[in-house]
Amino acid sequence: MILDAEIKSQLSQYLQLMEGEVHIKVSSGTDQVSKDMTALAEELAAMSSNIKVAQTELERTPSFSINRPGEDTGITFAGIPLGHEFTSLVLALLQVSGRAPKADQKIIDQIKNIKDEYRFETYASLSCHNCPDVVQALNVMSLLNPNITHTMVDGAVFKEEVEAKDIMAVPTVYLNGEFFNSGRMSLEEILMNLGSGPDASEFADKDPYDVLIVGGGPAGASAAIYSARKGIRTGIVADRFGGQVLDTVGIENLITVNYTEGPKLAATLEEHVKQYDVDIMNLQRAKHLERKTDFIEVELENGAVLKSKTVILSTGARWRNADVPGEKEFRNKGIAYCAHCDGPLFAGKHVVVIGGGNSGVEAAIDLAGIVKHVTLLARSEVKADPVLCDRVRSLSNVTIIEQAQVMEINGTDKVNGVTYKDRQTGEEHHIELQGVFVQIGTIPNTEWLQDTVDLNRVGEVIIDKSGSTNIPGVFAAGDCTDSKFKQIIISMGSGATAALGAFEYLIRN
Ligand code: FAD
User: Fold this and answer.
1) Based on CB atoms within 10 Å of each CB, which residue in 38, 151, 301, 431 is the most buried?
2) Region for 318 from its dihedrals, namely left if φ exceeds 0, alpha if ψ lies in -120 to 50, beta otherwise
3) Residue 351 DSSP one-character state
4) Which atom of ligand 1 is nearest to the CA of 244?
5) What pLDDT digit, counting tens, does each position of 140-162 carry?
6) Number of folded domains in the chain?
7) End residue of a domain, out of 402, 422, 440
8) Ligand 1, from 185, 214, 244: best to mutate by most atoms within 8 Å of Cβ?
């Protein structure tokens, strides 16, 4: 039995939502994965009279496609989509059966209008929390447009293919046999990458806002909700709605929520903002801010200029790079930034984690359960929480090297080593390895504000108690500010503060 009793009972409720017949076509051989895959298809068919199973021959074995009667959708799973991909399988079954995918009509129309033939392949791992979003988005595209097909390839089952393509990060998407993109992408981001996104003309005639928020993480979402609830005209521009939360796995410290996962929280943030009259402009980057006589103007990278009486900056932060020779060259060729996502691709290998703070130590602990050996390089001493330090020091396959300054990440076509200097003796050392995880904290997304807003030494926006910056009418919130601590709940609180500060400013001016 592939599905346990608990999953079956949950699944049977979902399968009741199916609206029509679905044909699963299985391409199987004599190997164990093929047998398990066939067993899974048969278990699904036994649970719903809407599911029929037939044998076929597909490009990859073992794999199976999910189709409408008499019409192939192009949705294929190569491998068994359990783990994080199980949701992708359930959604594919429901959507192929006739249930409408959750997407704005504008996006659905953009997908249907695609004329080119696109054959997508997503290399995924079942433990990758970023992969399902990409798999599900491409499945929806495949479902809505007969010119598009999509196969999810489980890298653990198709190891030779992954090695031949030198894939060292998941999800990695190929389009018509060529590398397309790597990392988490939403449906809108995929369309933008295909050149089917909105252009500047869509922003040309927008009326001025009362509050324009730049940044769509927890701080921006909270500021948007607080502003819109005052009944004032509110807009939000975000490069990537959800922010850092999208890259977070388990969240256990958002008060009143015992446990959630980043992508889930990002989805509920967006859902909550959409309850109100907020103009959401996702996948748009701001590049310049200027205070004019009547309004503050924010120019976007697409050339559009948005006007507003007040602006709330909530552009958050991003992963800090190691900034050493070799980092750019070997990104996705052995250098990774997400231990949860890419760890399984380094199973049985030797990896280095750069960073002795909480994120470095957490990554080392996580990786120690998967890889053969982890070397943790800390620039000074290990500075993580005591509980994490105790845990990492107890692991037999983790070596900790303190006072290690990384000089270079070495490799030929992919990473094969790291050179570091012992900061106490000045001696250089070389470690041979197959993977490097960079975990050295974050950097504020404020470069675009350097000439206009007062920033502190590390580039954080300087704010006062009501979130005001040095520019009248411009407020800031969250990780992009000089607030001492950076957390989701703190960002949400400061987003609310900035929104109330902006509202007070509007009343008085
Ligand atoms: P962000 O979340 O960084 O959002 C910034 C927003 O601004 C994004 O939408 C981004 O696309 C957008 N943006 C950036 N530049 C521009 C631009 N020029 N134009 C337009 N938009 C722009 N915190 C916890 O409380 N609990 C945890 O368990 C936890 N775990 C974490 C795990 C990881 C791996 C990481 C990286 C962080 C974690 N944090 C956790 C910290 C938490 O995620 C952040 O404190 C929080 O997300 C900050 O919210 P924010 O809205 O200020 O910024």
Assistant:
1) 151
2) beta
3) E
4) 2
5) 999 999 999 999 999 999 999 99
6) 3
7) 440
8) 244
Mutate to test the pocket of ligand 1, among 306, 442, 488, 494 (most ligand atoms within 8 A of CB): 488
Residue type for position 275: Q
Is 341 found in the same domain as 305? Answer: no
Count of CA atoms in the C-beta half-sphere (13 A) of 392: 31
Residue 327 lies in a domain: no
What's the pTM value of the predicted model, to 2 decimals? 0.78
Residues 310 and 424 in one domain: no
Q: Domain for residue 155, yes or no?
A: yes
| Rounded CA separation 135/156 (Å) | 16
In a domain, 233, yes or no: yes
Q: For 43, what's the count of Cα atoms within 13 Å in the CB-facing half-sphere?
A: 16
Ligand 1 centre from 254 Cα, in Å?
14
pLDDT digits (tens, 9 = 90+) for 420-457: 999 999 999 999 999 999 999 889 999 999 999 999 99
Same-domain check for residues 426 and 473: no
Do 425 and 344 belong to one domain? yes
**CB 445 near ligand 1, within 6 Å:** yes
Strand partners, 455: 461
Mind giving me the DSSP string for 15-84? HTT--S-EEEEEE--SSHHHHHHHHHHHHHHHH-TTEEEEE---SSSSEEEEEETTEEEEEEEES---GG
Q: Which residue has the tokens 């902006």?
A: 502
Cα(491) to ligand 1 centroid in Å equals 8
The neighbouring-strand residues paired with 235 are 212, 279
Structure tokens at 308: 């507003």
- CATH value at residue 433: 3.50.50.60
Domain that holds residue 499: 206-318+443-508
* Those residues with Cβ within 8 angstroms of residue 312's Cβ, 6 or more apart along the chain or in another chain: 211, 212, 213, 214, 220, 223, 227, 467, 474, 475, 476, 477, 495, 498, 499, 502
Q: How confident is the model at residue 411 (pLDDT cuts 50, 70, 90)?
A: very high
On whether both 160 and 181 belong to a single domain, the answer is: yes
